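Shipment paperwork, digital attachment
Item: protein structure file
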Amino acid sequence: MIELHTFTFNAFGEQSYLLDHGNGDATVVDPGMSNSVEREEFAFFCESKALRITQMLLTHAHLDHVLGAAWITEKWGVHPLVHPLDRSTYEAAPRSAMVYGVPMDPLPAADFSLEHGQTIHCGNNQLSVRFCPGHAPGHVVFVCEAHQFVLGGDVLFKGSVGRTDLPGCNPGDLVKSIETQLFSLPDDFVVWPGHGPSTTIAEEKSGNPFVNRSKTGMMQQSDYSDFAD
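Attachment content:
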């Protein structure tokens, strides 16, 4: 039985996730711990559950989602697994940290081999990878079919969507990603996003003001929708 735990870290209110495999191993997704207090909180939780981190996955490589990557590598010896189209995003994170005035350790070497359709094993459980660009060129989401949830990064939020005003963003791609990769999931799937509270596919399909099932969303009524055909 997989267990999902969530932590809110750093000045951006980023949601980091810990997947307990049920056998002593665990996967961390989007490690955003940015200071000693946040690192100690995460480490204490792992120690209290007798968990060792055996995988580090990134939905994408924006600054707030990688602030803890170096520490995870140093402490547990694992390196981040990232989609190859987000290499430039990963490499730009230290420069973004300087712009925002956020302290950041040098990033560890990453494995840029994540791909759409790939299966990630978490003990006896599995995550399937879906390519969802738009907020970042190499953005992916991780779908757990058995437990009906998706770790969605910054694609779809409760009543909102990922921002598209950053380098590498593409609003048309974001609309297409939501419509084809997230709204194709069953309605009762829970979306655990990179910021803010969880939501469900049904809730966002019916009432998201930017992208929804009835195609009345603000982004669907703009020129961006041309890219989503």
